[in-house]
Structure formats: C-alpha cells, structure tokens
C-alpha cells in the first residue's frame, strides 16, 4: 500500500495538497506568506499525533479502558542550520477519566511508540522523541 499526494502552488508561499478526498492548505508566516495554513513541519507533528493517537485509542478500546478524554500535546525544537529539522520532540499524552488503569494506558502508549506508530519510527531516525503521561 502506498500514498499519492498532489500539491499545487497557489500564491506567495501557499500550497494546497490533495490527500485522497481531503485538501490541506500549507503556508508560512508573513513576510513570505499569509499564514493561511499550517507549516509543513507543523503538519508532520500533527501526523505524529494522529498516528500514535489512533494506535492508543484502538489499544485502550481492546484493553477495555474507560477513559473520557484523550489529547496529545507536542513541542519540537529545530536545528539552526540548514536543512532545518527537528532536534528534539517532546510529547505529552493527556488522559481523562475516573479510575483509569494507569498500567494499561502506559502499555498502550509504549506499544504505539515502540512498535506500531510508523510516523514515530520515521522521526526517531532523525531526532529523539520523549513522552510523558498526565492523568486528569
């Protein structure tokens, strides 16, 4: 299985990417762009959150963990020299609910990070990814 994406320049630094049935605008901040969409690097981090998030909620469902909310916050530092890439990625998983089995949540997140999330596996080849879990 593979992916096909078509990306078309619109104006200044804005591009629209067609991803299957979905369209995503990418842009950069003013002087060069109009901030009409997220930057490509922000989209990579959103892809990371979506990839591991889908893993974790799927695993929590199989483990019968009754949670009421789930979020992922990501911060990333960038190198100063070109090509500018992520030098470190920090993730925080935020899990809400009453009487949540912490060991099952930790197991699901570890499985995602170490085994299932392909985006995480790709990014780890370039920069370290650390994560923490916060229960609400």
CATH fold category name of the largest domain:
GMP Synthetase, Chain A, domain 3
CATH level 1 class label of the largest domain = Alpha Beta
**Helicity level, as a percent range?**
25-40%
Question: Care to count the β-strands?
Answer: 6
Determine the mean pLDDT. Answer: 96
Q: Which ranges are low-confidence, i.e. pLDDT below 50, for 5 or more consecutive residues? A: none
Order of helices and strands: EEEHEEHHE
- Count of individual domains: 2
**Beta-strand fraction estimate:** 25-35%
Q: Tally the helices: what do you get? A: 3
How far apart, in Å, are the first and last alpha carbons? 38 Å
Multimerization status: single chain
Give me the Rg, rounded.
17 Å
Q: Order of strands in the sheet with the most strands?
A: 1-2-3
Estimated structural class:
alpha+beta
CATH-derived architecture of the largest domain: 2-Layer Sandwich
Instruction: Write the CATH homologous superfamily of the largest domain.
Output: K homology (KH) domain
Descriptive notes:
With 136 residues, this protein is α+β, with helices and mostly antiparallel strands. 33% of the residues lie in helices and 34% in strands. It contains three helices and six strands; from the N terminus they run βββαββααβ. The longest helix has 23 residues, at 40-62. The mean pLDDT is 96.
What secondary-structure arrangement, pairings included, does this model have?
Layout (H helix, E strand, L loop, with lengths): L4 E7 L2 E6 L2 E5 L13 H23 L6 E10 L7 E11 L5 H15 L1 H7 L4 E7 L1
Parallel strand pairs: 5-6
Antiparallel strand pairs: 1-2, 2-3, 4-5
Helix pairs in contact: 1-2
